[in-house]
Amino acid sequence: MKRGLEGPEPEERPTPSGRRNKQGIRIDPEVEATHEPRRTVISALVEHEPGVLSDVSGLFSRRQFNIESLTVGPTEDDDRARITIVVEEPDPGIDQVEKQLRKLVPVISVRELEPDAMRRELALIKVDATDPAQVNAVAEMYDAETVDSSPETATIEVTGARPKIEAAVETFSQFGIREISRTGTTALARGTDRTAAAESTAQPADEANHGDNYQTADDD
Amino acid sequence: MSERAAEISPADDEQDDDQITDSAAPDAVTEDGTASDAETATDPVTTGAESVVRALENAGVECAFGVQGGAIMPVYDALYDSDIRHVTMAHEQGAAHAADAYGIVSGEPGVCLATSGPGATNLVTGIADADMDSDPLLALTGQVPTEFVGNDAFQETDTTGVTTPITKDNSFASDSDRVGSDVSEAFALAGAGRPGPTLVDLPKDITKGETDQEPDDPKVPDTYQVQERADTEIVEAAAERIENAARPVMLLGGGVIKGEASEACREFAIEHEIPVITTMPGIGAFPEDHELSLEMAGMHGTGYANMAITHCDTLIGIGTRFDDRLTGGIETFAPDAELIHVDIDPAEISKNIHADYPLVGDAETVVEQLADAVDESPDATKWRAQCQQWKSDYSMAYDAPKDEPVQPEFVVEALDEATSDRAIVTTGVGQHQMWACQYWTYTEPRTWVSSHGLGTMGYGLPSAIGARIAADDDQEVVCIDGDGSFLMTLQGLSVAVREELDITVAVLNNEYIGMVRQWQDAFFDGRHSASDYGWMPEFDKLAEAFGAEGFRIDDYDDVAETIDAAIAYDGPSVIDVHIDPDANVYPMVPSGGDNGQFALAEDQL
């Protein structure tokens, strides 16, 4: 406090011309470059063992990755489960999500799905059944099924890509929605393209699709 | 060992007649003159706990640090018959730090043990410390019997749950036949690829349970894959960038030391005359007395290192994760530099600073790849001259007038002077740690043992214990500690005395939490809230109460002589060094600041 070291003062020192943005990327000082977040689906094949879901969800919360939904279920192989995660992050963040996921020992492979991948979620929507005919008509519109009905309520099951579910929820709201339960997105790559194979080395985010079009050709 | 086995066997109620015959057998076998080691290895395991200990033996573990307790008792019982040296620590935090330091100095995973509940939670700080610094560490924790798990049983904690965020991997043992292999795998994982801490939670029924299954050899699981060699195309591109660089700098991180790449980096830097900076964990990767060395960059790095890193046009970062204490504000970090980043962990690439040339692979292998690919040295004569100029402009000189209190820098230099080049320095966390970085001249890897990423006060003494056990006999171990830091784990003195460990602790005592005081002076109007430690014990007397040798330094006349006596003392000694209470650490880059704008004195902050 009373002393210090000798040497030129800060203002007497040369300063370089360049600059980096908050993501550590060198940028033109004249231009403010930011990466806008985009929404994407990441699929991870994992060992089907206790604790793996908490490993994955814990990773997301402690690294502050912005997670939209997370689903998990068994696969064709009894020893393996598939976790489907929808995230909304800028590209460097998506890249980190994949790399950090891949570091977890029970994780076998990770990849970001192409925009044309099949994505589905399921929703159960319980509405007031004051006008059953009208409810049925709307359900038909969305290829939905009435799975429970009572004098006062009807519960409809609807599956599809997220925009369809959102639209269905909005349309059903005219009847008065009592409760909704949704599963979050599950997804598979199209055709012979493997979603997440054991030997797959997932591509880095900057090679993967950058389109922000979440809707797919197969949204019904 | 066999003596102990002979003593215990007849008294052990749980062993049946066959086993007693078995343990008596080695004595009979000696008649053919075979070494007793071979006999131990052939004794079949009978319990999960024996399998755990056998796994450690197979892995080559020579020493483990821990504290006994209810749920871990079966493992300790099995250790009783093993050649593995066990050091009983005074607190589990110390066990984790000692094992961590053992791992740093030896390069092999250090092993620590604790019981369930409070034993396991006391390890947490040390495990988190190892995680932040990528130190190889295996923690074995006792757990309540499986049938009680989840019932809030006595001394139960969800240890795998608690440690998931701070371990590379952890597991809950659920099968006596598999528990030994679980431990083998955890040991292999701790040291593989990017090292880190692993943990196996051991329920008491699993370790007590009968088994005849020998553990598998240490092997990482198939899902854990490490890339050794970097992509050839990127190596070529990076090599070209280096050849054309006007202002190149190498930045060596802790990964250089962990990857045994120090020698390859030295050769590369010297052949191509590239100035070298280290991070704090990278200290020792390059000899600091070499002309090309600019020492450490970052918050309390040298002025010349920070000028060089700020003005370079090509930054070759090896085994570093670009921690915020190194980079300062991201926007102003090496703003003109293209980054060549070598790391074994792909997740470190472009995590904090975007890498223009990402080279994923083992540090030594990739540096050799680079060395093969670079044909021409960069033309950087002017740049090197500039770096030398900065070295003299911002020299790490200090005043030590005889009529003023002892300056800490002087003490660190005197300790360095009194010891060999291979001496190992361990530290706590605080001002003393920074002086130990700045004023000790490190020339060898694995001679700097400190808590970097987590910044754990209290790390110094227990890590000196682990370092001492891993070090060669002719290497001195010096713990440079602060009064606040030492006070947190000084119960470890009882361990050092009991184990007759030759350690010299120099407590740079200013009766402050000095680094906090320094920040309060700079950023909180000098309001010394809870940083003034005016109630410090007399550490020399306290050392003597523990059975160690105590020394005290009050003025310059005592320094050299006292240090010589303390180093010469064959056993643990503590020097209570009363330093200038107002001494602060410079240079300093304020948190998130511009490295090139480091302050040389308080009025520049």
Briefly say what this structure is.
Chain A is of the alpha+beta class and 220 residues long. Chain A contains four helices and eleven strands. Helices cover 20% and strands 32% of the residues of chain A.
Task: Describe what this molecule looks like in 3D.
The complex is a heterodimer of chains A (220) and B (605). With 220 residues, chain A is an alpha+beta fold. Chain A is 20% helix and 32% strand. In chain B, the strands form three sheets. A six-stranded parallel beta sheet of chain B has the order 2-1-3-4-6-5, sandwiched between helices. At the A-B interface, strand 1, helix 1 and helix 2 of A face helix 14 of B.
Name some characteristics of this structure.
heterodimer; A: alpha+beta; five-stranded antiparallel β-sheet; four-stranded antiparallel β-sheet; 20% helix; 32% strand; B: alpha/beta; 25 helices; disordered N terminus
Number of strands of chain B: 18
Q: Going across the major beta sheet of chain B, what is the strand order?
A: 2-1-3-4-6-5
**Could you describe the largest sheet of chain B, including whether it forms a barrel?**
6 strands, parallel
Major sheet description of chain A? 5 strands, antiparallel
Oligomer: heterodimer
**Element order, helices and strands of chain A?**
EEEHEEHEEHEEHEE
Q: Bin the strand percentage of chain A.
A: 25-35%
Helical stretch tally of chain B: 25
Separation, N- and C-terminal Cα atoms of chain A: 71 Å
Helix content of chain A: 10-25%
The overall pLDDT average of chain B reads: 93
As a whole number of angstroms, the C-alpha radius of gyration of chain A is: 24 Å
